[in-house]
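Re: that chain you flagged

S.,

Sorry for the slow reply, it's been a week of failed gels. I finally had a moment to sit down with the sequence you sent. For the record, here it is as I used it:
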Amino acid sequence: METTKRGFCWKLFLLYYLFVQGSAQDFAQTQFICTSVPKDMDICAATLQNGVPGEDLKTTVMQLRETVLQQKETIMNQKETIRELTSKLTRCEGQSAPETGDARPGGRRKDPGTKNTMGDVSRGPADTLTQLSQTLQSLKQRLENLEQFSRNNNSVQANSLKDLLQTKIDDLEKQVLSRVNSIEDGKPGLRNETEQRGRVESTLTSMHQRITDLEKDQKENRPLDKFQLTFPLRTNYMYAKVKKSLPEMYALTVCMWLKSNASPGVGTPFSYAVPGQANELVLIEWGNNPMEILINDKVAKLPFLINDGKWHHICVTWTTRDGVWEAFQDGVMRGSGENLAPYHPIKPQGVLILGQEQDTLGGGFDATQAFVGDLANFHIWDRKLSVGEIYNLATCSSKAQVGNVFSWLESSLDIYGGASKWTFEPCRQLN
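Prediction finished late last night. Pasting the structure tokens below so you have them in one place:
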């Protein structure tokens, strides 16, 4: 009996010790003193002798027991809440099935083995429908070009080509709308949205190839410099690469014809990168910013307004002395400035790309910065053209010159990713 009593007192003592130690913040004024007790002495008696009343000790133990029970109940409730939240999170993850995110804002990293013909940005059904509509509009524009070609040339072959193309576009439109409906309705016939999107994109790729094949006959009768490049979508793979690099230049003039109604921003008509500097020479209109010219990563804002869906002729001149620049739209000077990369010559041995902005030499394209629209008659000179020379270019004068550093020829470019070529007559656009 004495042994049992002593064991019980030891337990009370230990519980009291743990309670006091674990509740130091609540009992900041309490001081605990550890006292040695002879082996044969009654623990309860020793406790009382050291100033801890037995009744108070009993009350304290009861309070401790109640606290432990409350904490146990709280822990059980928390465990149940965690299980419920975990279950909900698992269901949400299973429904969303997110893709791997890219480090770029607004972008997605795609499987390198999957060709995305609709761009490098994530899309829901509504976005997919918008992109498909833009693609179909581009194809129909090319059909109108065929009709114009047939009227100008009164060619039976061209009329036959136009009829065949119209039939194929109508067929594609039906196929695309059917697939978009299946995406929006969530029909169970396709396993997931990725597979649905892949089938739609495969159809578009096939259609682009058909049209390209049809256009080959028309291209054979076209002069090498009478063409335009069309970039119908924001992608990270549609572009043209100039076959040769630029020389070192202490002055330059860049001119071209552009047509776009892209928003926000028409994108990057061209970019020139050299080893160690991706932004050696870039023309870009990105987001809600105005169009800019970058030289050695230094920026000048240009007063161009061109995203109205009409053809515009633009030129930018620059000299390394004091970094003086001038901007011309449709033959008229719209702005000028200085201190744009002064005394920095344009470096040689780089890569010149049309339609994309380079983050690395010859690559690192971002779909959000891609050019959307039509581009033609891109020329570069290693000198500053006069106001009269630029006006002749914009008005299609017979005195107009071609670039001595780069001139607009089909043989000077390699085309990638589905960007298409078509006949272009700048003077005809002005009539």
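What I noticed first: The chain has eight helices and 14 strands.

Talk soon,
D.
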